[in-house]
Design goal:
heterodimer; A: alpha/beta; two-stranded antiparallel sheet; 15 helices; 9 strands; B: about 400 residues; alpha/beta; six-stranded mixed beta sheet; three-stranded antiparallel beta sheet
């Protein structure tokens, strides 16, 4: 089989440089996991709280490896007809009518003509296997914890041999497997059998330095001082006992919002006005309003002013 | 691995040896390490190199661990193993490590209150085995309070509980199944009728499939509930025995998830293990705090698919009533039905007068007794009646 092979990084260091070029700042351990997933050709299973940059890994990998990203967003009840393929029924019915009016209908040939690629609706998994014949894509299976066990079972099968059988058409096989990235927010336990087949990595909330680097790299026109204050505030906020702590994506949104509002420094008012970008839960917002908020802002300002606290 | 001789390969051989032994240590520490993964681990080390300790750690971790809760144990084992390895040239300490049943000692094991269900502590094994033989001879009153049960009666009641038909309501999913009536199944319509020349004669249909609702149980095992706690654990266990997805938590001052403990199988043995893990048994009660922990730490993981949530508690709370009410309200918003079982509701003199309880009751769908077999049977019927709501 022809087609391009991907040029994979030769070492963990090389991978890290590649990721950084795409503005993704990965811990060493995450970089090792990604490196191994690529070289051992195993799916990468990323777990962690919402908004810590799991999906981003797939996007960045696709960009870094210069290949296509094919994404399957999981949801409850996701089945073959939405994940793999489906026949285009209305077109098929229309075709029957057309054949009828042309009066050339022949039962056996009709079945052949109606179940051809022209009537096939290709969904992400089929597209990924097809694309892999040309150049292995990055296949992102996002939020697998939202799909149900039946789908996990199917996925398990697909991941072991990367071939899809369509009864009416035959079997489509990928000579080289796509780079598979599976993410889970851990709203439920994904079955061990599936995880065992993968390279597993847990992504935690970032520490101050990492988050600061991410915010500085990703939010344009953000002043160095505000970047520090924003990071300090968010880090502090994560220590408060909340229903849902904010992730990195929230930090980035918030920082971008502050830039859009032409803010140079944090103050209680602007935090109150924009807190909805960080906390998406009424109880949580209530919990930090008032004195608590003032204290966090004060500490963030102190940090941003260079009086670094432990 | 084949020996290829030479200085370098001797190192390689030692490395292979080390990695394989480490795999055994992890397994002994209770991690689910598949034998097939060891080959991956070896290839991984080969690719990553051994120059950086952090890389070796990360490489082994991402291949040998696949559960978040195992990460801490892995780290501990890694530190122990590879320090022990480097400090002594010989393999001796390693062997001893490999033989250790658990890397992480269970600090609670020595001090835990061991409540053996149905058996009362001081009895000799001879007597309890006699009790087992005499099961059928014991008649259990269905209306007698669990708190007044004799051990033999508890055993019998335990058996009865296991036989209850636990059906806890169904939920419609987005998945389809073939049925005589329902919506048209277009794929099958086409395939079937094509052979008839495209005339639509036969119209296969499909409907959404219904599955049992998952079930979340949060049981109070504090001092005031002590009399009922034995029954409760069987209650928990009987539920997960019936194949239903059951998440179980127990609390007194702290909330502990016991799902895995119960899932590890083995009837009374599982429950015995569970007791050792929950070292909170019989402390004071802070329902509000426990529910808070549940809402923040666990709810997102276990409250899927519209579960029926059962709280088993008498409502004696030493915490803040406002907090309790807020947390119960939050819990209520996330589940299909919230049922509060209260053993004290059985006694005629009891009124739910504790402030916390009163505040919480506004957010509860059902408030039911759970003090004797009759009330548990009634609960089973009630749960069945929830049906496909």
């Amino acid at each position: 089989m022809g087609g391009d092979a991907l040029v994979l990084p030769a070492s963990v260091d090389e991978l890290q440089t590649l990721l950084e070029r795409e503005q993704y700042i990965a811990d060493r351990s995450l970089a090792v996991s990604i490196f191994l997933a690529l070289t051992l050709q195993r799916p990468l299973f990323l777990e962690g709280e919402a908004g810590v940059g799991k999906t981003e890994v797939a996007k960045v990998l696709a960009a870094a490896l210069r290949t296509q990203l094919i994404r399957l967003q999981c949801y409850e009840g996701l089945d073959i007809s939405h994940a793999v393929y489906e026949w285009n029924y209305s077109r098929q019915l229309l075709e029957i009518r057309l054949i009828e009016t042309a009066e050339t209908l022949d039962r056996t040939s009709a079945a052949r003509e109606l179940f051809t690629e022209a009537f096939l609706v290709k969904r992400p998994l089929l597209r990924a296997v097809e694309q892999a014949r040309v150049r292995p894509p990055v296949l992102l299976i996002d939020e697998i914890d939202r799909a149900d066990e039946e789908f996990e079972g199917y996925l398990l099968e697909l991941l072991s041999d990367f071939q899809i059988t369509i009864p009416e058409l035959g079997t489509i096989r990928a000579p080289r497997p796509p780079v598979v990235v599976i993410t889970s927010n851990r709203t439920r336990e994904v079955h061990d059998a599936l995880k065992r087949r993968c390279v597993y990595a847990w992504i935690d909330y970032p520490d101050f330095d990492k988050e600061h680097r991410i915010v500085s790299a990703k939010v344009p026109r953000l002043s160095a001082r505000l970047a520090e204050q924003v990071t300090a505030f968010v880090q502090d906020l994560r220590t408060v006992d909340l229903y849902k702590a904010s992730g990195i994506s929230e930090t980035l949104d918030w920082a971008a919002a502050l830039v859009a509002l032409n803010r140079e420094v944090l103050d209680v008012d602007v935090v109150n006005e924009t807190i909805g970008l960080l906390l998406k839960n009424q109880e949580d917002i209530e919990a930090v309003r008032g004195e608590r908020m003032q204290a966090i802002v004060a500490r963030a300002l102190a940090r941003g002013a260079g009086q670094t606290e432990p | 691995m084949t020996a290829r001789g030479g200085q370098l390969d001797q190192h390689a051989g030692a490395l292979v040896d080390n990695v394989l032994r480490f795999g055994r240590v992890l397994r002994a520490a209770g991690l689910d390490v598949h034998h097939g993964r060891m080959l991956d681990a070896l290839r991984a080390i080969e690719r990553v190199g051994v120059a950086r300790r952090t890389d070796v750690r990360a490489a082994l971790c991402c291949l040998l661990v696949h559960r978040h809760e195992d990460l801490a144990r892995f780290d501990e084992a890694f530190d122990l193993f590879f320090r022990a390895r480097s400090e002594s040239a010989g393999g001796l300490p390693l062997f001893s490590l490999g033989e250790r049943p658990r890397v992480v000692a269970n600090p609670a094991a020595g001090t835990a209150v061991t409540i053996e269900l149905g058996e009362h502590d001081a009895n000799s094994s001879a007597e309890s085995s006699r009790a087992v033989g005499a099961y059928s001879a014991v008649e259990v009153s269905r209306t007698k309070d669990f708190g007044e049960f004799t051990p033999a009666e508890l055993d019998r009641a335990r058996q009865l509980l296991a036989r209850l038909p636990w059906r806890l309501g169904m939920r419609r999913t987005r998945r389809w199944r073939r049925t005589p009536a329902g919506a048209l199944d277009l794929r099958r319509v086409l395939r079937r009728n094509l052979l008839r020349g495209g005339e639509l004669v036969d119209l296969p249909r499909r409907t959404r499939r219904a599955v049992p609702r998952p079930f979340v149980l949060i049981a109070d095992v504090s001092g005031s509930m002590d009399r009922y706690s034995r029954m409760l654990v069987h209650f928990l266990y009987g539920l997960s025995e019936h194949g239903r997805r059951v998440e179980s938590f127990v609390f007194a001052t702290r909330l502990t998830r016991v799902t895995r403990g119960l899932a590890r199988g083995g009837g009374t043995a599982a429950i015995g293990r569970l007791m050792r893990e929950v070292n909170d048994w019989g402390g004071g009660t802070r329902i509000g705090d426990a529910l808070r922990t549940f809402n923040t730490r666990w709810a997102r993981r276990v409250m899927r698919h519209g579960p029926v949530v059962l709280i088993v508690s008498d409502g004696w709370d030493r915490g803040d009533p406002a907090r309790l009410a807020a947390e119960v309200a939050r819990l209520h918003r996330q589940c299909h039905r919230l049922i509060w079982l209260n053993p004290l509701l059985g006694s005629s003199s009891y009124e739910p007068l504790t402030r916390g309880m009163q505040a919480a009751l506004r957010h509860v769908d059902d408030f039911l007794p759970a003090h004797n077999l009759a009330s548990l049977e009634q609960l089973a019927r009630h749960l069945n009646a929830i049906g496909t709501l």
